[in-house]
Write a structure and sequence with these properties.
By secondary structure, this protein is α+β, with helices and mostly antiparallel strands. The protein has a single domain, classed as Alpha-Beta Plaits (2-Layer Sandwich), CATH 3.30.70.120. About 30% of the residues lie in helices and about 30% in strands. The protein contains three helices and four strands. The chain is elongated. The relative contact order is 0.33.
Length: about 100
């Protein structure tokens, strides 16, 4: 088993949720488990597709986190970039010092 030494975080528009999740489910060898939740995006790079979001100044987004091997995170990002190119998708990787289960 590969060492889970990286947390890949991807923030994307709600409209891409099914596509992103389908890609993850198609590649269990890269991401065997992940967490998603709804967030709001702010900032100069944010795109506000609805009038409500434009008025509020924040965009509805989904955030996905996967603890995985760094090499697998890079492969998954390359896959996403090739299959779902979008300036509205942001990602980052952070080191994980330890990962495990309580039982």
């Amino acid at each position: 088993m590969k060492q889970a030494d990286c947390c890949l975080t991807v923030v994307f528009p709600v409209a891409l949720e099914e596509n992103i999740l389908d890609h993850l489910l198609e590649h269990p060898e890269l991401a065997s488990g992940f967490t998603t939740y709804e967030v709001e995006g702010h900032g100069q790079g944010a795109v506000y597709p609805s009038v409500n979001e434009q008025v509020r100044g924040r965009a509805r987004r989904m955030k996905m986190e996967v603890v995985m091997a760094h090499d697998d995170a890079q492969a998954l990002i390359a896959h996403f970039k090739a299959s779902l190119p979008s300036r509205e998708v942001a990602y980052w990787m952070t080191p994980v010092g330890e990962f495990g289960r309580f039982a």
